[in-house]
Design brief:
The chain is α/β, with parallel strands linked by helices. It is built from 15 helices and 14 strands.
Length: 396
């Protein structure tokens, strides 16, 4: 069985969720005996100029997995950005704007031609994530019986585009990272004829943290709430900062701090420098140590198809606090009984007070989450699910 994964950009150090997921999936599938290859463009990353071929064309290896790169197609960035701004603001675009968006999205004509001319060499093509040109035009270049998508879907304006809704029903299979993501896909698209599997993302269940090592290295002795991830509005970090500053204002006696780790710049509320600590990007060991030291992890994002940091926090034995309006993270919390969720400031304050004043019960929530991750997202379990699903699709 030979499987080609198709993704817009790919490399050892790209930090995006889909890219990190594929690195792990491909390595574990190859170790299990599956012939895996990555098809991608020569672009560097999501944050780079999509008109620039950063990597050399041809085949290279990333963690011993072959990666075949193709040059990007030149695009009209200005026209694309005009439509993309409307979509980012949650607006509705016309069919002609959809066509422009997709035409000027990152893509590679050479990659699509390769798929058309060499589809006989592969049993399946797995496209990810859903919104990029390599996925949309790649699927159109692929025989429907060999096309599979790992959409990494969120309930956002892009997902409602008509051209996606018309195209993504003509594929063999879909793989989902969570149950709410699968439910969303079935509300948006007619997938009655599409084989589906909710697999999730594998985790290294050996993860653990050393709370004392974190406190000693960073000099933070007070109790703290942890945020781990990109610091941008798309992750709803601005809400967390505003809510935590309000919490400190309303509860002047508390010594509770907020610690931020991860890339990006956070605009701290005025006067919060003494109780909000932005440590920037840290090494994985420091991240796990921070998780073990925290009272709990707060994941405020409303749009996730999975949440690796939640699973990592649980593996480090700490509970999580998530936003009620994120179907994925709130569903994980309910399934695992591993934390709490909030929908407004007052619920946020109540959750902080409960988690910090009921330490034994909070510890139990963390232990529940730990058991949940080990049962459902150990890499051996995830790899077996992938192989069974691929075998089902190819046998049919």
């Amino acid at each position: 069985m030979k499987i080609a994964f198709v993704i817009p950009w790919y490399g050892e150090n790209i930090k995006g969720g889909a890219e990190a997921e594929l690195r792990e999936v491909s390595v574990h599938l190859q170790a299990a005996g599956v012939d895996v290859e990555i098809l991608t463009t020569c672009a560097k990353s999501f944050d780079s100029d999509w008109n620039v071929n950063y990597y050399a064309e041809g085949t290279a290896f990333v963690y011993d997995v072959p990666v075949r790169r193709f040059p990007v197609r030149t695009r009209d960035t200005r026209s694309f950005n005009k439509v993309n701004r409307k979509l980012m603001a949650g607006g509705v675009v016309s069919l002609s704007e959809e066509k422009l968006f997709l035409r000027e999205m990152i893509n590679s004509t050479a990659l699509c031609t390769y798929i058309q001319e060499n589809e006989h060499l592969y049993d399946l093509f797995v496209f990810m994530p859903y919104m990029f040109g390599t996925t949309f035009f790649g699927i159109l270049s692929c025989p429907p019986e060999k096309a599979v998508m790992l959409p990494c879907l969120h309930n956002e304006s892009y997902a409602h585009m008509m051209m996606f809704r018309q195209t993504y029903i003509n594929i063999k299979g879909m793989i989902f990272n969570s149950r709410p993501e699968q439910e969303l896909a079935n509300r948006l698209y007619d997938l009655q004829e599409t084989e589906q599997e909710c697999i999730g993302i594998g985790m290294d269940t050996r993860i653990s943290g050393n709370a004392g090592a974190f406190r000693q290295k960073y000099g933070i002795s007070a109790p703290f709430v942890l945020y781990a991830g990109r610091k941008d509005t798309g992750k709803n970090v601005d809400t967390l900062l505003k809510y935590f500053a309000e919490y400190r204002k309303r509860n002047s006696e508390t010594d509770l701090r907020l610690v931020l780790i991860g890339g990006g710049e956070a605009e701290l509320p005025e006067g919060s420098e003494g109780f909000i600590h932005d440590l920037g990007f840290v090494e994985p060991e420091d991240k796990y140590n921070a998780m073990a030291a925290a009272e709990f992890l707060c994941q405020p994002s409303k749009n996730e198809s999975f949440s690796i940091v939640m699973m990592e926090s649980w593996l480090c034995g700490r509970p999580v606090l998530v936003h009620e309006k994120c179907p994925v993270t709130s569903d994980f919390v309910k399934q695992a009984q591993g934390g709490l969720y909030f929908k407004d400031y007052y619920e946020f304050e109540g959750c902080l007070k409960w988690l910090t004043s009921n330490k034994e019960k909070a510890q139990i929530l963390g232990e529940n989450g730990n058991a949940y991750v080990r049962e459902h997202f150990d890499w051996r379990t995830i790899t077996e699910k992938y192989i069974r699903f691929f075998e089902k699709l190819t046998e049919e």
